[in-house]
Write a structure and sequence with these properties.
9% of the residues lie in helices and 35% in strands. The protein is mainly β and 779 residues long. It comes from Sinorhizobium meliloti (strain SM11). This is Pectate lyase superfamily protein domain-containing protein.
Length: 779
Amino acid sequence: MALNAATVFRDYEVDGVPASGPHKIKKSEVRAIHAGIDAIINAFTANGGLIYSSLALLNADLAHAANSMAWVIGDTTVANNGVYGKVGASGAGSWTRRADLPFSFIIASDAGAGTANAIVATTSIPVSSSALVWMNIFEANTASPVTVSFNGGSSLTIKTNTNNDVVAGGLTAGMIALGIVSGSTFRLLNDQVSSAIIAQAEAAQAAAAASAAAAASAAAAAEGVGVAVAVWPSGTLRTMKARATDTYCILDAPGAADPAGVNDSTSAFEAMVAGGVKCEITIGSFVLTRKLVIPDGVTLEGQGRGYEFGHKTKLLFAGTGTKEHAIAGATSTVVANPDAGAPYLADSGTRGNNYSTLDLTTNFSAAVILGKASGLKGLGIYPNFNGVAGYAGTTGDLSDDWDVGVWARNADWWNIEDCNVIGHWRKSGLLVSAHDIGDGKVPSNEIGHAIRCHFQGFRGISIRSPQTVVGNNWGFAGTDFVNCLVRGLSHQSGHLATSSQLTTPFSSPSGCLEISGDIMRGIQFLNSTFIGRDDISMFFDKCSEIRFDGCYEEGKGTFVGGVWLDNSDGARMVATANSVGLFFDANSKYVVDFSPGQTRDASLTGKRYTAAGVFNPGTHFDDDYSRRVFGSYIGDRMRKSTDRRIIEDENGVSQIIFDAAGRVQSNLLFSGTVTIADDAAASIPTPKNGGICIVTCCGSTENGNFPDAARSGAVFYDTGTAAFSSTKQFGGANFVAVNTDVAGTTGTDGNVTVGVIAGNLRVENRVGSQQVFRYAFMA
């Protein structure tokens, strides 16, 4: 067998016979054919490489030594192209063709000169069994077998790689066929790609899909939901089971939502929520430039939870929100700041002089407005500030101008979970309101629910309604906040909201929470945290039955004029007498001023405030003062010196009264102690207009020279008529009673004198030193 590439690298042991088994390539044969190739290359390069464009030019040049090598490339007679060797001495002899040109592949052109089943192709160099042929197909074959003729040569039968004839349609117009000349055949490198075979496969796939659909329909029918009864807005009938699984993804919405935050996604969000089903928002930052109104019963859900500004799904409200909303009657309540002019307000001008609730009667903008039973889950909602990068700075700049982040407006059963609604919202991160909006419905915002959320803005949370409701208002009963973080502005520069360091200072102090309005009751905060740098921790005006269970309140320090102010920590509880029934159970606090409603906490000593606070609710309860655990005992603590603890009977009549001085009053007993300096007098309030009081002089301490019989005794008294009287009933020689007031030096030196004025006994001490007196009213 003559050695060439076709024989050495043949597919089968017997060429063209698959039954003979795969051919194993022999290294000796590979070396033999490469030796011939090397000889040709060496001969060709030895004389510098002779190349001629035609055989005629080569034959005309005999001035070369014997065995010189030359190539003919480009002769119009294809068979003349090849590798030639010189025969004879220089100047004589001739050239003899020795081999084909050593190209790895040859390009053949099928220009349609033949037929679809008898192809005629041309090449620029002769085809051979040692080169791969690359050939285009002019037109699809219509029969089998198919032949090809190269350069007018004999016809070669086209075979597939597995030595089969090409089926009708196996060669398609425009395809490229790769193969080699193998004897009387042109063997393709791969099996045919048949459009007929593809069509058959596609038909089989369609049949399989139809079968699957039929099976699913049968299964649905078996489940009792096979009847198409639910109508999609497009009019397509769908099963109830399929309808119940609907979720509208933002990327499916018209309007080209852009998760990269480059383009405006408002239109896409508006189209999505209009679908009326659950809306899923992918990971990304979506820019909106108009408010987004969530219809009743629709929930927007992002991708999981996020901390601060690192939420996976961000809604960025850019530009200036349209100020088109107002709440008639939701006016501002103003309380003077008793520390106006303090050092912490040095860069605030007069803007920190008053605390005030929001005035919502002037138009404001809102980013997201919730309807009844609508909700948000797993979203970060921010006013745009160079995306959110601006919040990480330290300048006095503010974000884009939007007033309210999320507004639950007459939205019974609203629900917000795992959301961050934070940033420089000019009024409030969250606004919850109940008020008449002219839709014919009774204003109501009951049983709202927020869990694991972070609200921040000029107010973190505002819960408001008109101060005086005209008509009906069902209010907010059952609204709760669980495990939430609530903050005021908390500007990134570390300054107060009123500071001139801000590009646009706010007109009054920021705060975490405000609650005010008619029919404002039944709201509770559970295990939530309130932290603020500005003055207002919470502001209560017209409200009742507001509960805080297991919460934490904290005030922060501040920069003033660009410099950190030491000992500037502090925040205030602000409450008017219109607020009643404020309950604080199992709370803890740090540098938050509850005075004068409660004794100022020791953590405020030497901090922001020097004046008494502004916490003056009508009634409130704080169990920090009723179930307090001390080092070695459990007991009650009065909130302030004027407090009294009262036990009433079933008719509401006071029976036993304890006051902050330790005195106990009952129908038969009212007692206590009083310390009086020498030559001074003190008043003892009488529980009744008349009765008996025993006065005991105890000495310098309550258990000093007790008893001092000479200066102790009992008096009958009348403090309720114009003719006041105090009559000694028994006692020592230096115990005296008079019917007039005593001033400290009225009686005789050395005596204890008891006088009388309206509603009080007066005890004068002229013993010679400070004395402690114990008294007890017996009737």
